[in-house]
Amino acid sequence: MTIERIVGLIYLLVCIGVGLLASRKVAASRDEYWVAGRRIGTTVNSLAIMAALASGGSIIGVMGLTYAQGIPAALALFTGAVIGFPLASILVAGPLRRFGKFTITDFLRYRYPHAIVAWVVPVLIVVSFTVYIVAQMKAAGITAAVLLGIDYETALTLATLVFILYVSIGGMLAVTWTDVFQGGLMLIVVTGAAAALVWQAGSPGHLLTAATAAAPELGTLRDQPLGSYLGSFVIWATAIPVIPHIVMRVFTAKDARGARMALNIAMILYALMILAAVFAVAPVGKMRFPDLADADMVFLRVMEADFPPFFRGLAVAAVMAAVMSTTDALLLACSSAIAHDLLGQTLKRKVSASAAHWVAVGSAWVVGLTAMGLAYSPPALISQFYTAAIGLLTAGLFVPTIAGLWWRRANLAGGIAAILVGASVYLTVQFTPGTPPLSAILFALPASTLAMWLGGTFGAQERPEMIAEIARLHD
Amino acid sequence: MSQFFPVPRGDRWYLALLVAIAVVAFLPWSRNTAAGSLPVFGWLMVALMVLAPAVALVRLLLAGPGPSDEERR
């Protein structure tokens, strides 16, 4: 375990070092802390976006889902995320970058100026992202437990403290710098492992044929209802355009075209990693370890059995990178929801830049430690767990955001109704016994759309100045 | 005047193509018909994963740089 631990330790120290370096640049400016000064180039932003989305769910979770429910189910969920990138690129990247604020809440509060929006949107973000972070922490904990021989709780606590530390002191600049490094590491480890396994098998076709012959359920749509597959696809396709930690990346780009380019390149990198995981690593794991009690362990078992210590050390660092690069972005988004959206704007507190910075730091710690407490009792199949949480956010934000940017009749009544109805219907259906997993979004999005249409059609017409301002975002 | 701000024609066709492939993928035929080791549904998902980024990137590159946000102002 010595080599693995040394590689893992070096990785964590690098992350802390980056946070300390970035902290010198960000303390003086809100623009620097939240959106890295809006000067991140396309290549760097692409890797950072890919790393922000490619979470522990994408490395540990995609293979766990493939192992437990087969290749088609995993493809349905993760293809939805890939499709979400062009939607984001076409529907929100340009106008939101020209809008030029910090967060998705900034836009929604501007478009629908009402206290309900100002309170409900940040609360939805904090609740769903806290659940998302819990899933990431499980990935960090089981990785360290299996590959480093540390017990789950200790690994969880250590990893949490490190990433809260560098997010809270370094802001978006630290997150961007570390994400680039983390994104590269993830790509190398997952595609490298997949290439080695394919080479052993002879070809991708041979590997797939052998795996589906040994475990036929791997290649079939299992007995889940269509609503579950379609729901997981729709949740991610509609989440990417409004999910705050991706949208914040749009705000960091130099301009609108840079934002669109970065989203599309990120999509290619993400797809490459997912296909490598689904078609190579998970099938080999299914053949070698057909009876795992926890499906999310499959990647770790393959690493343990088939790769030398240095590569296992890299694998630990890659999973930690996946967890941390998403969790830091989630923490920053939660922190901004509390410190910027709720305290900074809604309560209209007159606080200095320095005081606001410390509120942001404190928010990151509160959210991170809360999630860590919840992660001590980890969920099964993390990818489904956090997808359900993201569904809540999508149900509330997708329709008002897209309508607010593209529909001239979108107005205050419609915006408020769409947010409240979308989130309420999602929660109601999600917790109704007998509902297929992840299918609640299929009810929530149409309900939210109907609410927006009713509000926009029968409510007071939007002010001409607002419509002119939205038109300017499309020029 | 249309109730919607206009989406560029190329973007409309691109989005329509993605939606069409997704709709076909979720039809019962695609889910119940095997091709090789996977149902057609699985291959269509793979096609979406590969086509969506490739086409989007080619379109952006062909469109050229255009005016920056600063120049627009």
Q: Describe it for me?
A:
The complex is a heterodimer of chains A (475) and B (73). With 475 residues, chain A is mostly helical. Chain A has a single domain (2-377), classed as Sodium/glucose cotransporter. In chain A, 82% of the residues lie in helices and 0% in strands. Chain A has 19 helices and no strands. In chain A, helix 4 crosses helix 7, helix 5 runs antiparallel to helix 12 and helix 8 packs across helix 15. Chain A is globular and about 65 Å long. With 73 residues, chain B is mainly alpha-helical. Chain B is built from 4 helices and 2 strands. Chain B has helices at 9-25, 28-32, 40-63, 69-72; strands spanning 34-35, 38-39. Chain B has a two-stranded antiparallel sheet with strand order 1-2. The chains are: A mainly alpha (475), B mainly alpha (73). Chain A binds chain B through residues 71-72, 75-76, 78-79, 82-83, 85-87, 89-90, 97-98, 205, 208-209, 211-212, 219-221, 226, 229-230, 233, 255-257, 260-261, 264-265, 267-268, 271, 274-275, 405-409, 470-471, 474-475, and chain B through 1-7, 11, 14-15, 18, 22, 26, 31, 34, 36-39, 41-42, 45-46, 48-50, 52-54, 56-57, 60, 65-66, 68-70, 72.
